[in-house]
Amino acid sequence: xxxxxxYEASKSDYSVRATHLTFVQRLAYSVISIVLCAVNLLxxxxxGFPAINIVGYPVNMSIITSLACFVIIYIESxxxxxxxxxxxxxxxxxxxxxxxxxxxxxxxxxEAGIYVMxxxxxxxxxxxxxxxxLFERGFMKGFVKIIxxxxxxxxxIGVIEGLFQFILPFYYSTxxxxxxxxxxxxxxxxxxxxxxxxxxxxxxxxxxxxxxxxVFRLKNAFMRIVILSMIFTACLLTQxxxxxxxxxxxxxxxxxxxxxxxxxxxxxxxxxxxCVIYISMYDQISFYDINERLIYxxxxxxxxxxxxxxxxxxxxxxxxxxxxxxxxxxxxSSVNSVYSLGIGQMNTIDNNYVTVLYEYGxxxxxxxxxxxxxxxxxxxxxxxxxxxxxxxxxxxGFSFVAIYYxxxxxxxxxxxxxxxxxxxxxxxxxxxxxxxxxxx
Length: 440
Known about the structure:
Elements (H helix, E strand, L loop, with lengths): L5 H6 L11 H20 L9 E3 L2 E3 L1 H16 L10 H18 L5 H27 L3 H25 L4 H10 L1 H9 L12 H9 L2 H4 L5 H18 L2 H18 L2 H19 L7 H9 L3 H20 L3 H6 L5 H9 L10 H30 L1 H14 L9 H30 L5
């Protein structure tokens, strides 16, 4: 079966629900898309943006907006939204959430565990249902335009910060209010890494890279080139090896798919220009600068990450009892364990999969990986659009704890919604074509 591309699916009308939208519906879907994308890419949710107290507990804006948008979509759909969603994916997520609940009972901090569960449901389930519903309703092209516009704004803010050492007052005050000593050092250090709009170089750059599959769906070639160039420059300025590798994986595959020499030439040319701009910020323009600032920057950090992963695995296998190995040590238990080591610059294991195994045990780890395998399997069917972005995200999990960052996970969830939607539309189209054949 030949599967539709993401762009072809956006033009198709396979779904009965993808009918002509009224002005009110388009306005509502636009507002929902803008709010979700802007909150998760323009607001430093995990770095000091004020939370709202609900029943005495602080709830961040990402959870609130996801819940509010879900309620709106639920009402608009006539409560049929559950039956229109990706059942296999949600079933995998539901089983993992059940394992989270079991782990919650042995967590060292019960309230923090509750918050993590709510965050996970909001990020990986509610957002998936919302975005998938928008696609099914025929708003895919509108969503692509909105997410690309907000990506351009976010990347532009990061590029300005990196080239001119200027942080917008809003972000400066938010970061310093979050942790004055730590963030003041990050802002003023001589080898400054761009914090961007999320306050974390890795999370910010990974979030930008995860918008790339949608940028490639823009019809305007010029805007496509501009936004991709801004993303690449911002990733360089964050000095994040993770995001640069992700960018390279996605861009090389997409250029092959384009099969247009002019696009390949332009991307190579712009990449060279971005490299020159990046290196020119320093006293000497040389290959040594690239090695020091990007490739060999802080080699002790790589060794420390490896040591932390080995330490966590040793504790898990040799110091755990049977219950701990099956159900884990508890939600956020890895954070407490790392803090107890007294390593100043490390407060997590910085490995998504080791963290999941350590906290949720064999059961949670297997269920979590089953969800990734399901998405990877569906992405393989549409490998021209999503397989390599999915692969890049999975590989990024070896360098930071991706599961706990709501912001970049929204864009991961949007990718999942995109691949599940295009695969579903293709299969529905094939089924319709078979049933419509005349009987002999």
